Amino acid sequence: MVGLIAMSEKAPKFELLFNPGSLALIGASANPYKWGAIILSHIINGGFKGKIYPVNPREKEIQGLTAYPSVAALPEVPDLAVVVIPPSSVPAVLEDCGRKGIKAGVIVTAGFAEVGADGEKLEQEMVRIARREGMILVGPNCFGIISTACKLFSIMPPLFSLPGPFGIISQSGNVASSIASKLISKDLGISKLISSGNEADLHCEDYLEYLAGDKDTKIILSYIEGFRDGRRFLEVAKRVTPIKPIVMLKAGYTAAGARAAKSHTAALAGSDVVFASACKQAGIIRVRDMDELFNVGTALLCLPLPRGKRVAILTAGGGWGVLGADACASAGLNVARLSEETMAELNAILPSWWSHGNPVDMVAGVFQEDVMKTVEVLLRCTTVDSLMLLNLVPALPQNIVFGANKSSLSGEAVRTLDDALSEVLARLAALVNKHHKPIILAWEFGFELIDARLREVAYQKGIPCYPLPDHATAVLSSLARYAEYRANLNPASSPQA
Amino acid sequence: MVGLIAMSEKAPKFELLFNPGSLALIGASANPYKWGAIILSHIINGGFKGKIYPVNPREKEIQGLTAYPSVAALPEVPDLAVVVIPPSSVPAVLEDCGRKGIKAGVIVTAGFAEVGADGEKLEQEMVRIARREGMILVGPNCFGIISTACKLFSIMPPLFSLPGPFGIISQSGNVASSIASKLISKDLGISKLISSGNEADLHCEDYLEYLAGDKDTKIILSYIEGFRDGRRFLEVAKRVTPIKPIVMLKAGYTAAGARAAKSHTAALAGSDVVFASACKQAGIIRVRDMDELFNVGTALLCLPLPRGKRVAILTAGGGWGVLGADACASAGLNVARLSEETMAELNAILPSWWSHGNPVDMVAGVFQEDVMKTVEVLLRCTTVDSLMLLNLVPALPQNIVFGANKSSLSGEAVRTLDDALSEVLARLAALVNKHHKPIILAWEFGFELIDARLREVAYQKGIPCYPLPDHATAVLSSLARYAEYRANLNPASSPQA
Question: Which domains does chain A have, with CATH numbers?
Answer without folding.
Answer: 11-298 (3.40.50.720), 304-491 (3.40.50.261)
